[in-house]
Amino acid sequence: MDGDAALIAATAVKPACLWCDTEFEPRKGGSPQRFCDPKHRDAFHSAGRRFAEHAVLSGLLTAADLRNGPAEACTLRAGQEGQSDDPGIGDDETALSDGRRASVQKVQLELSIAPDGILDLCRLGWLDPDTARDAGAVGDAVAELTNAALSLRLRPSI
After folding, report:
1. DSSP letters of 68-116?
2. Among 50, 62, 91, 99, which has the highest number of CB atoms less than 10 A from its own CB?
3. Do 22 and 39 touch, CB atoms closer than 8 A?
4. CA proximity to 82, closest of 26, 48, 32, 38
5. Is 135 buried (19+), middle (13-18) or exposed (0-12) by CB count in 10 A?
6. In this structure, are residues 52 and 63 in contact, taking their beta carbons and an 8 Å threshold?
7. Which tens digit of pLDDT belongs to each residue from 53-108?
8. Mean pLDDT in the chain?
9. Under a CB-based contact definition with an 8 Å cutoff, are residues 60 and 74 in contact?
10. CA 158, 110, 147: angle at the middle one, nearest 5?
């Protein structure tokens, strides 16, 4: 995927606030905006502190786990663009319960894509036009597009 295709995909749908789940128009520049309002960012961090305290008191986490965790405050580490901006606690890796995570398995899909959809994949840079007739290449392009949308937490516009 080239940079232009990523930019088009990222701007196609507005991000959703991590706290209230409503779409918002992100500010220009700076670090990626995760909340629609500073009050929602504060509420998120307050809830995170309460969650961590409860986890320590219930024995799920120790103070040493918190002390020895990531030292950087509210910054993204390399390769974590689509994850939570509170590293180590409440990130995408811990979003599902262990039981639910264990029950999720790889799924093999068979799907039909209209010719216009394949042409759009080529136009947006997700698929090499020379491989547009190769079902495996088309499937890989759809998987890449889906994974990129998920990592950006894109939601369908209503």
Report:
1. TS--SSS-PPTT-TTS-SSTTSS-GGGSS-HHHHHH-----------HH
2. 91
3. no
4. 32
5. exposed
6. no
7. 888 888 888 888 888 877 655 444 444 444 444 344 344 444 556 666 667 777 77
8. 76
9. no
10. 50
